[in-house]
Amino acid sequence: MTDVTDTADAPGREERKGRTPFVVRLVRQPAGAIGLAIVVALVAIALLADQIAPYSPIKMAAGRPLTSPSFEHLLGTDEFGRDMFSRIVHGARLTLQIGLIAVGISLTVGTLIGLVAAYAGGFVEKLLMRSTDVVFSFTETLIALAFVAVLGPSLENAMIAVGIAGVPFYARTCYASALGEEGKPYFEASIAAGAGHARLLFLHLLPNVVPTMIVIATLGLSNAILAAAALSFLGLGAQPPTPEWGAMLSAGRDFFNRAPWLMLYPGLAIALTVLAFNILGDALREALDPRSKDRS
Amino acid sequence: MALVDISGLTIGFGAEETLPPVVDGVDLAIGKGEIVALVGESGSGKSMTALSIVGLLPERGKVRSGRILFEGEDLLKCGDAQLRSVRGARIGMIFQEPMTSLNPVLTIGEQLVEALIVHEKLSQAESRKRAIAMLERTGIDDAARRLRQYPHEFSGGMRQRVMIAMMMALKPALLIADEPTTALDVTIQAQILDLLRDMVRDLDTSLLLITHDMGVVAEMADRVVVMRGGKVVEEGDCTAIFAAPQADYTRRLLAAVPTLDDPPRRVGAGAFGSSVLRLETVSRSFGGGGFFFAKAPLKAVDGVSLTVRAGETLALVGESGSGKSTLGRLAMRLETVDEGRVVVAGEDITRLSGRGLRRVRRAIQMIFQDPYASLDPRFSIGRTIAEPMIVAGGADRRKIRERVGALLERAGLAAAMAGRMPHELSGGQRQRVAIARALAVNPRIIVADEPTSALDVSVQAKILDLMIELQEAEALAYLFITHDLAVVRRIAHRVAVMRKGRIVELGAAADVLERPRHPYTRSLIAAAPVPDPARRGERRHAAAEIEVPALETAGEWRAVGDEHWILA
């Protein structure tokens, strides 16, 4: 992209100014600011649940069963007369935990498998990717079920199961993205310079696939929360009376006609969380990209 | 009245106050049946000007002022529907990339016929007949059968013929061709240009040809418009501009174009040092195997032997698919050879692996064609250049930083650029960084795979100068892979001509370029564009006369001169 003038191809004109800090670059985008604000608020709610919630989340008959939202019970009560607002506030804690831990497991394991498969090639590649394909061919819930069946029903095991069930998707995405980077000349130049496996894998490949993976992960968060909810619904995840959004959503189904708020508010909470992480993810990718324009 | 009359055209991206326009008050007229070449380097605004005629500006690009009269009507005031009927029917467009400008999931016939049905309201049968006639007119044999084929079954040159057939079937008043032959081999390029010219002359169509290649301009244009930085700097008759350019910029642009008439690099015998790269009957095939049926493997490189000595440039010339890039990658051990040996700086690297390979391979480095992909977008310039030194170990941070600065300056950049990121650099600057990185490990030889073909001519000239200067200072050897014979003339001491995986001619640059003995080399040289309108058509006739025999099955090397061999 140069011109015949000397300026374009000539030595750098000025010393580069220091890079804008990462957080500033993130928050400068409207999406980043909003996403981050919601996520911070959610985390704060989760941490301060005991202070915020007016009732205990598991106390039955805090009010009359199935009362519609009022000043006393902001979001109404459920079939046992538990205060929905308190349950949702406490549920934030568990739901965020489940989402983050499950996605964390899928992301780490999946990225590693994808990277190694793309880099190693040959037999290792075939072994890793074909096994991933086999796992991929079952639905995630089924895999998660199988794992819970082995590990025993508990919330922790549900997180692990959902996390593992998500691995193939992350591995596939990472693999495709890493293959693309691997074919680029900068990677081969690095090989020619004598770079070792670790340097090629973690300094060249990994940073260049991370932006893709981050976006995938924020989208995957909703999946993980819903998959955990499905397990809870089957009695294999969060055990009653533990407040967990997914489980609450499932439980509310039976009363949908009489008390729609039982489904509405947990559903809204999940949707808001997923939305917040999604737009935060987009902003993160932009902020992580060295090419992003928004820099001074 | 002119067919197209553009006046005061100003195009900008984003808000007017913050960003300067990319096209700034351009006036341009194209007469009926006229071939106008719009010339300029990247960023000159030539493509934007052309795209605005068909209303295909990129999303954020806006016409800020001016008017575009086409057949007396202002296209900028047209509605979408009206514009659509003009596009295709009255104005055709041919793009650079023949590989992507046809839809891969539709047959050639479907795509040709579709345009005719939409714009000409012809019946299916009539359209088909017209499509076949057009394909035949563009020199495609067996057109009826070809209509049922998909784009991937056509070569690049054939696809460009299909594109031309598709556009010309509608008999447009104006055809816009954006770098139509840049992606093609020279021999094909000559044919496509001929075809394009004949077609527009036959149908009395005007042609707006956008190109950076002065050879193409000289071959085609009636009138030339030179653009720079969004403005028209010179405009005039083609012959006049080549003979006596008025604007300073045009003069420099023409001077920077390498030609086959430049004096070649000559070096007396024995001027070079010992061999730094030796390829001994290396071969490499791709494909083969297959799950159910054995496929015949493609021999990309077939028993090639070469030696490059210290301080010498060996140019590897050939058309796409000749195996020249594969040969470079074999020398780098980025591909492994099936047979033969690769000896770098006296050590056989064919069977090395791991640490041993990493140590030896530093003697041979590479510069790649695409300046955008050859630097890690997440590494700063300094970090990129420091990498080979960090990997080699043994140097402390301060020393490395000093050496990075020194290398940057060696490559003609400021040491302060170390802190920049690749995307902040121009193509030429990136290529300089790639050179600095290659030099970081004090290599004996650099494999340069088309290092200047993605650059503008003026930048290309500077990069070649830099490479020559470095070579003379440090007795570097180059294996210079290119398709551009004029570039070969600038930089090479010796030339190896490759065809279908084999070297067909090898000798001193002056000998091979001036007294080519192999018919294939002769046809390549005859097809090379000459940036001189006075010699228009010369190469067409010259190229047509040469009969290139089919691939030599088991040729033998024959000496035809001093250090000059051909495969015959």
Automatic annotation (TrEMBL), chain A:
Keywords: Cell membrane, Membrane, Transmembrane, Transmembrane helix, Transport. It comes from the Bacteria. It is a multi-pass membrane protein. It holds the Pfam family OppC_N. PROSITE patterns: ABC_TM1. InterPro entries: BP-dependent_transpt_permease, MetI-like, MetI-like_sf, OppC_N. It is found in: Cell membrane. Its main location: membrane. Gene3D superfamilies: MetI-like (1.10.3720.10). GO terms for cellular component: plasma membrane. The keyword Cell membrane applies. Belongs to the binding-protein-dependent transport system permease family. This is ABC transporter permease. It comes from Jiella avicenniae. The lineage of its organism: Bacteria, Pseudomonadati, Pseudomonadota, Alphaproteobacteria, Hyphomicrobiales.
Automatic annotation (TrEMBL), chain B:
InterPro entries: AAA+_ATPase, ABC_Ni/Peptide_Import, ABC_transporter-like_ATP-bd, ABC_transporter-like_CS, Oligopep_ABC_C, P-loop_NTPase. The keyword Nucleotide-binding applies. One of its GO terms (cellular component) is plasma membrane. Gene3D superfamilies: P-loop containing nucleotide triphosphate hydrolases. Residues 1-254, 277-525 form the ABC transporter domain. GO terms for biological process: peptide transport; transmembrane transport. It is found in: Cell inner membrane. The keyword Nucleus does not apply. Pfam families: ABC_tran, oligo_HPY. It is a peripheral membrane protein. One of its GO terms (molecular function) is ATP binding. Keywords: ATP-binding, Cell membrane, Membrane, Nucleotide-binding, Transport. PANTHER family: DIPEPTIDE TRANSPORT ATP-BINDING PROTEIN DPPD, OLIGOPEPTIDE TRANSPORT ATP-BINDING PROTEIN APPD. Belongs to the ABC transporter superfamily. This is ABC transporter ATP-binding protein. The lineage of its organism: Bacteria, Pseudomonadati, Pseudomonadota, Alphaproteobacteria, Hyphomicrobiales.
